[in-house]
Amino acid sequence: YPSELLMQKITEDNQIPVHLHVSVSLQYVAGLKGRALVEFFHSNIAEVENEELRHLMWSSVLFYKTPNVEVMSCVLLSTKAIYFLLDDSFIHADEHQSDFWNKENSDCENSSFHLSCCFVLKLNDLQSVNVGLFDQYFRITGHSADHIVTCLTRDSYNTHTFIQQLMAVLSLLARTPSPEPVDKDFYSEFGSKNTGKMENYELIHSSRVKFIYPNEEEIGDLAFLVAEKMDGLTNLPSLNILLYVLAFQVNHLEGSAQNTSSLQPKTLILTSSDLFLFDEDYISYPLPEFAKEPPKRDKYQLADGRRIRDLDRVLMGYQTYPQALTFVFDDVQNQDLMQNLTLDHFGE
């Protein structure tokens, strides 16, 4: 340890997404290659001497205690824990949550010393992993509200790779197996006999960590919600969700010096007749076992919705991933104006 293959893989993965800005301290980490990266892990991050770094990933993360602050993180998976290396700016982003973080070193702000804080989730404390729709994100749950983190990978490949690596590492943990239920069959394992309703698909790992995947009903619930937002313009049976993707809405800030743009996280949903942007709560659902009350906001909140028939043109940027798309809609105040004109003209 480490093998040449592992060092090559970790070096390739150590790249910050180009559209997201990070602090100088994280830029330093992203500049490390191969053996230097592994040595940095052992001298600055690892908690025990004999743990091995197995996987590295850059991802936006959300914490259960600060659900409105999305922060860039270098996620490091070892044989003992998952480490989230964060911007120091995150500590000051949400002042009323200051008790969540230890602020001893906040006097370093004005010096040339760049501080990163590291959130540690030990594998022994891990209870469940919820994978989001179409593998766009996943939520890691520990034993308390302080130990719930969502990784917004916005990429099914990164999600899949991390889950595979996590399962492999969990297999090394020595835990006593849980007792097998009596007369275990398909219906008792995956369904509730009282309601006849299928639960989310659960895979219980040998380490007793649950891996929970969304079932088809979640898409059905989402389709029903989307139909509600359409004010009954479309009948539900014919409504199909063609695309669900976590994206960013670009807001140009023209008053600033360089005309910079801010990126607002949105969930984009495309149906056969409409294009929707939702503000989605990625961290509160499904409710953790210790939650005493439902979250303050719904899982999906409609931010914008336009009919495909009003779409005039789509402009595509020529840069590599992530691709920028601009949707230009006809700015008609009364949405049904064209429809009514047609009826008046051709009807009786």
TrEMBL record:
Domain Nischarin C-terminal PH: 241-347
One cellular component (GO) term of this entry: endosome membrane
InterPro entries given in the database record: PH_domain-containing_M2, PH_NISCH_C, PH_PLEKHM2
Subcellular localization: Cytoplasm
Annotated PLEKHM2 PH domain residues: 114-178
GO terms, biological process: Golgi organization; lysosome localization; regulation of protein localization
Entry annotated with the keyword Cytoplasm: yes
Keywords from the named record: Cytoplasm
Primary localisation category: cytoplasm
Protein name: NISCH protein
Gene: Nisch_1
